[in-house]
Amino acid sequence: MNYSIPLIMSGNSGTDHARTTAVLTCGALAAPFFLGVALVELMLRPEFDIHKLPISFLNLGALGWIQDVSFAYSGLLAL
């Protein structure tokens, strides 16, 4: 059996292409952004041992708001 799905062509393919590119770019930037913020925060907290604690524990303490914002922005970029 041969099943095929008809391709619906839209009249504004330039807009669709730009939107797709923007969404894919945001998704590709989510992980590097998250890791970059975590690395900077690790440098700011020499007492934090990455070998014993997960990165998510960086949201504890006085500078925890930085990791909370990083979680939120990374999540939004991943959508």
Describe the structure in your own words.
The chain is mainly α. 59% of the residues lie in helices and 0% in strands. It has two helices and no strands. The longest helix has 32 residues, at 13-44. It is elongated. The mean pLDDT is 86.
SSE diagram, text form:
Layout: H1 13-44, H2 64-78
Order of helices and strands: HH
Low-confidence stretches: none
Counting DSSP E segments of at least 2 residues, the number of strands comes to 0
Could you say which overall geometry the principal axes of the C-alpha atoms support?
Answer: elongated
Judged by helices, strands and strand pairing, the structural class is mainly alpha
Helix content: 55-70%
Biggest sheet descriptor: none
Radius of gyration: 20 Å
Please summarize what this structure is.
The chain is mainly α. It contains two helices and no strands.
Which descriptors apply to this entry?
mainly alpha, elongated, 79 residues, 0% strand, 59% helix, 2 helices
